[in-house]
Design a protein that fits this description.
The complex is a heterodimer of chains A (about 240) and B (about 525). Chain A has about 240 residues and is mainly α. Chain A contains 11 helices and 1 strand; from the N terminus they run ααααααααααβα. Chain B has 4 domains: about 80 residues, no CATH class; about 110 residues, 3-Layer(aba) Sandwich (Glutaredoxin); about 260 residues, Class I glutamine amidotransferase (GATase) domain (Rossmann fold), CATH 3.40.50.880; about 40 residues. Chain B is about 40% helix and about 15% strand. Chain B contains 17 helices and 19 strands. The chains are: A mainly alpha (about 240), B alpha/beta (about 525).
Chain lengths: ~240, ~525
């Protein structure tokens, strides 16, 4: 656990000592801020505010945002040759992967917490459905964790950060829009299976509408575990390849 | 490539086998592809295939692959098991995913029925997300009744034969139906009730379920012997639309010949939940009034649409004994004033709209709804109703004309020259009552008296939504059908955002669009400059 914590702290320090992390956070907050303010103006006296507005936006943004956050994590170590140093250090491959993943998830959580300011504003001017909002935030937090785990997996496979981000984006696009294949195959059963394999399928029909389902939590947790497990196996393979 | 195809095919096939609990053509295809892929691998690159199972790298990679597959299998199994348990926590403040007491009562009644109930949902393959959202609600009903209510999803493309008889409704966006099923599990078509999913699924489903349970319990008779319109005629002056509308909403409708009953000294059938007297063209005889009196004293309900006819013996005219009967017993009677309304009217000032509605009961619950002008009622050549303010029973007004209206008395000028003008000496000032109700608490007799009968005809009833509402909600109030399922509006859904002043909005815009991202951008520049200095 100590090794994980140390790696996580080191990665977090790197995040917050890099201007890119702040630029990403700034762009992210600009996008969510404009969306929030537009929706607020549209809602005034007309309809209740959408409790899952910001999480719903994040569900799409994460397709690009997650690869940006994770592309550097392992591919940079591969490119600069520091991975060998890490592998010889008294830490397990699992510690390396978990530490880096947790640092990305912590950074994502930090940005997510910043957007709670919108909810604070809403509480002061309206009667928002807070518990619904909390459910949506829980959903998008797990969704983000799963997206980051997929991003980390691709970062482990290559030395090229751009390639890692590109492959992760393609994978997340497939995981987001995979259910659209159901339109092509014209089979409701197959469309249902594809829908259940997608990130969106476990968010839009549950967390986003205020229902917290155990199966969706298992899906996201499972996706995180599987993606990290494969990433560990990929790093491990460097020892015997 | 062969190894990848083989591994993936076998994995997906195995998962599908667990998921479906058996073999399907898709699963067989996947397993076939998997085996084919492995054979292809072994045939095309035998050394590689052999090394995969024997070399050091092979051992490591095999271990990695199979441990990954094992983990995927364990996660998938856990997912499938949890999914079957359908564990859901309702996080909405209004409990949108928790069944209300009203629904639970309806479900207790549903469980007592001998036949199972099927919720049939028609969703195309590209509507899976919508299906999943609706399914969240349906599963609450399934779980609460331990499967007495169950769901069935149909893709109209895959089952065109079954979907065919529902296609008209599906095209109008009615894609969910509730029906009783027989012992063979087949839907009993005559019991099918369409469900309009409006976004408040629980009330939509429960209302339909309640309709299904009480369908056939309420019988409404259309009087046909007083030169009244034909309830099955499709002509403009027929009543087929009103008749079908009631049937579609769970009522049984039958014709009733009042003169025939009176002639043999009979009575209105005991199963008559309500009798509709739409636009009678002649006065009632003493014998016919006696039949109605006996019916009302037994707790009957009369829905009377008294129209304008420029004849001497107009139904419920000034000297009509039935008019006097209603006044003496229920404090209601028709006048011979024709309502003219310059400010609340349709095409002409004689097409009177509902200017004022009263909410003492459910009769006008859906009339003059905010933001929906089409929810007003429209009467053509309506007569004013008089309401006794010191009545022998409880009574009241439902709809009135505006203050600018008046009651026209010069029927000759109106009928021959279509002229009408307020005459202070003869006419009376508005507002005038267009619809009124009475209820005898002792006998439970109910009456709705309307100053128009033409609005029930095919030519008029669909001129506004309000006309249909006045019929359905009026009959619902009389029969008690409307009182079966009442939902308290969800607090959150009807609570809009509070008004925010422009100054407050500017502050919010500054914080959300400028300050928050601005701080991050400034931090980025500061970090960049610090690193530059280092």
């Amino acid at each position: 656990m100590r090794a994980i914590r140390l790696i996580m702290q080191r990665e977090l320090a790197q995040y917050f000592s890099s201007p890119l992390a702040y630029l990403i956070a700034g762009a992210f907050l600009l996008l969510t801020g404009v969306t929030f303010y537009s929706d607020l103006n549209f809602s005034l006296g007309v309809r209740p505010v959408e409790p899952a507005l910001i999480p719903n936006l994040l569900a799409q943004v994460m397709i690009v945002f997650a690869p940006l956050l994770t592309m550097r994590l392992l591919s940079e170590e591969n490119r600069e040759g520091t991975m060998e140093l890490l592998l010889t250090a008294p830490v397990s491959d699992g510690n390396i992967v978990f530490g880096k993943f947790l640092s990305a998830w912590a950074y994502y959580t930090f940005i997510l917490l910043l957007t709670l300011l919108y909810q604070f504003i809403l509480v002061n001017i309206a009667l928002p459905d807070i518990s619904h909002t909390i459910a949506a935030y829980l959903g998008i937090w797990m969704y983000g964790g799963a997206a980051l785990a997929v991003g980390l997996l691709f970062s482990a496979t290559t030395e090229n950060q751009i390639l890692a981000a590109f492959m992760a984006t393609i994978a997340l696009l497939l995981l987001y829009y995979g259910d659209s294949l159901g339109r092509v195959v014209a089979s409701a059963d197959l469309a249902y299976i594809l829908f259940n394999l997608t990130l969106q399928g476990h968010y839009a029909a549950s967390f986003a509408i205020g229902a917290v389902r155990a199966e969706d939590i298992v899906y996201y947790a499972g996706l995180i575990v599987v993606a990290l497990f494969i990433a560990i196996r990929v790093i491990e393979s460097k020892r015997w390849r | 490539m062969g190894s990848f195809i083989g591994g993936t095919g076998l994995l997906l096939g195995s998962l599908g086998f667990i998921w479906q609990g058996g073999m399907t053509p898709y699963i067989a295809l996947l397993l076939g592809i998997g085996i084919g892929g492995l054979l292809l691998w072994a045939f095309m690159t035998p050394d590689d295939f052999k090394a995969f199972f024997t070399g050091r790298q092979a051992r490591q990679s095999t271990l990695a692959i199979f441990s990954t597959l094992l983990l995927v299998g364990v996660v998938s199994l856990a997912y499938i098991m949890v999914q079957r348990e359908n564990i859901v926590a309702d996080a909405t403040v209004d409990g949108l995913f928790s069944l209300s007491e009203t629904t639970l009562n309806v479900l207790r009644a549903a469980e007592r029925t001998a036949q199972k109930i099927e919720i049939t949902g028609f969703y195309y393959h590209y509507q899976i997300a919508r299906r999943e959202i609706d399914d969240s609600y349906f599963q609450l009903y399934v779980a609460e009744t331990n499967g007495h209510i169950y769901t069935r999803y149909v893709n109209p493309v895959e089952e065109p034969g079954f979907s065919d008889r529902y296609m008209d409704a599906i095209d109008q966006d009615y894609n969910v139906f509730i029906s009783f099923v027989d012992d063979n599990g087949d839907i009993i078509p005559t019991t099918t009730i369409p469900v309009e999913i409006t976004g408040t699924q629980e009330s939509d489903i429960t209302r339909a379920l309640s309709q299904l349970l009480v369908a056939g319990s309420y019988k409404v008779y259309f009087e046909v012997g007083l030169e009244t319109p034909d309830p099955i005629s499709n002509a403009a002056n027929g009543l087929s639309l009103a008749n079908n509308y009631l049937r579609a909403n769970g009522y049984i409708t039958e014709p009733l010949n009042l003169p025939g009953i009176a002639a043999v000294g009979g009575d209105i059938p005991q199963d008559a939940s309500a009798v509709v007297l739409a636009q009678p063209r002649r006065r009632l005889s003493e014998a016919e009034i006696a039949v109605i009196d006996r019916y009302l004293k037994n707790g009957g309900a009369l829905y009377i649409g008294a129209d304008t006819f420029f004849t001497n013996e107009v139904f419920m005219g000034n000297n009509d004994p039935f008019n006097q009967y209603l006044w003496d017993n229920y404090g209601l009677r028709m006048t011979e004033y024709i309502v003219v309304d310059p400010t609340s009217s349709g095409q002409t000032e004689l097409d009177v709209l509902s200017a004022v509605v009263f909410g003492e009961n459910s009769i006008a619950a859906n009339i003059n709804k905010e933001g929906n002008p089409n929810s007003a009622t429209q009467f053509r050549l309506a007569r004013a109703v008089e309401v006794n303010d010191t009545p022998p029973v409880t009574n009241g007004r439902v709809i009135m004309s505006s203050e600018a209206s008046w009651g026209e008395t010069d029927l000759v000028a109106l009928s021959t020259r279509n002229e009408y003008q307020f005459n202070a000496d003869a006419d009376i000032r508005g507002p005038l009552t267009l619809v009124a109700w009475a209820r005898d608490e002792a006998t439970n007799a109910k009456i709705i008296l309307l100053g128009d009968g033409e609005f029930l005809t095919n030519g008029q009833i669909i001129s506004t939504e309000g006309n249909l509402s006045l019929l359905l909600d009026g009959i619902g109030w009389m029969t008690g059908f409307a009182e079966k399922v009442e939902f308290t509006p969800r607090g959150y859904l009807v609570t809009p955002v509070l008004f925010v002043g422009s100054e407050q909005r500017d502050i919010i815009a500054f914080i959300t669009v400028v300050l928050m991202p601005g701080v991050m951008f400034i931090a980025a520049v500061a970090v960049y400059l610090r690193r530059l200095r280092q």
